[in-house]
Amino acid sequence: MSSSILSYVGWTFLPNLITGWVQSIYYGITIRAGDPKPRPGTPQYIKHRQRIHIAVILIYLLYTIYEADYTLRQEGDFYQDLDLPVDVDEKKVKARFRRLAAIYHPDKAVNPEEHANAEIYFVKLKSAQDTLTDTTRRWAYERFGPDVLTWQHASSIRDYILVGLQTVAPLYGGSIAIMILLGLFGYLQWGRYWRYLIFACLALVEYHTLTRPYWSPILTKVVNPFLTTFTSHPPILPFQFLALAHKATFTFFIALGQLSPLFAPQDRPATNSSAALDDQHLERLEQMAQSSEIETQRLLALEMAPIAGDEAGQNDLKGRVREWLVQNTIRADPEVRDAMGRAMAKRRVGAPSGARPIAI
What we know:
It is built from 14 helices and no strands. The protein is mainly alpha-helical. The chain is elongated and about 130 Å long.
């Protein structure tokens, strides 16, 4: 349970975090030192981030499914405990139990610690033997898992089916209620049809698996033949298959929710609003420029107030301003100074030795 919670919590931040790391590493490998990298917010940067994000989400989706399968294999099942195939008959089950009981019986333990461990393991083997030699309980175990050992009031196949469906119903009822509620608040809009379709298919497959006297053809003709032929993975039981299907479905829904912003069409009104915002900024800058010009004219008029009616004073002021501009703007330029220096040097070529240079 704790690993499942951590897995779901990881979906909230790990894909974005890993995407940022992978994008930085990708730029470090593909872009030479000194060349400019795409800046955040540019179309190229956004395109690269979307592709990397999609790849990270798909890989993390496969990892969570693998993690769920690994957890199920670590927990094991009664067939693995007795090291028997899934189609074994009752006689072989009893013979295998007698052989293992002779090896791992608690009375053969040397010290108290080994005795306690051996007693736990022997009880596990006894439960496996009792379940697999009882036709009804074995049928229920293969479909509902080890929880059937706690269903004391169930004795027939019909009883096990009723109890099992009662334990599964809250999962589907709560999931549908959450999906509808989130849809009413505007969430899970993109891919909504596929969510409901996949959820309906999952419910149909689970109902078929739990209520039929034979194993699902998906297991007997597709999954288990593939696992036994191409991998070292042992055949999976119906309850393990359903657990993986639950994990894969809900994880896929989470991945679909993270992929939706990357595939959802962009709204044009958002572009229009962005253009309108740019126009507002331009208008504000124009107003600020006009205000600065008005303020400059007001300060200039205030400085010119003492000589407002004196034409000679105004002409003298204009001449001084012109001379100041020439002295501080033109002659202060390095290129102008060099040009004037070269010109004056040419004029003084015939000057007597010891003549003072002309200051510039």
